[in-house]
Amino acid sequence: MTTPDAQATIEVRAPAERVYDLVSDLPALAGVAAEFAKGHWLDDVTTARVGARFKGVNVNGPRKWATVSTVTDARPERFAFDVTFKGIPVARWQYDIEPTASGCRVTETTWDRRPAWIRPITALGTGVSDRTVHNQRNIEQTLATLKAAAERA
């Protein structure tokens, strides 16, 4: 895989299974993610599994947009999905969860997969001109919120 566009890691004093449950459950993920506001499974799927699709709604200030994602990894050490907008590749998001002696280490990573021609259009729609910087800040915020939620549970 190519070099990520944004990535951060955090130590969490909670079991890896609890963290996996938070990132692979759409309402729980919406509760901790910086930009992902809500989502629902498509095609009569009710839980995360490889190949499952979900519609996600993202929010940045007054702007709101929907995407469709396909789960590519759904196992305790990794939850990942590829995001599209109207069938056009947008991004890959990945949560790697590694058990440690005191809990787990979580790494959130994203790869921008938008074709060059659509980037100005998505910048207008999302209000984000520098997606790499924006995603880095969002990942750091998401991981801090995830840590607090997992340690509080």
UniProtKB/TrEMBL annotation:
InterPro entries found in the cross-reference section: Polyketide_cyclase/dehydratase, START-like_dom_sf
CDD domains: SRPBCC
Annotated coiled-coil segments of the chain: none
Pfam families membership: Polyketide_cyc2 (PF10604)
Name of the protein: Polyketide cyclase/dehydrase/lipid transport protein
Annotated source species: Actinokineospora auranticolor
Source taxonomy: Bacteria, Bacillati, Actinomycetota, Actinomycetes, Pseudonocardiales
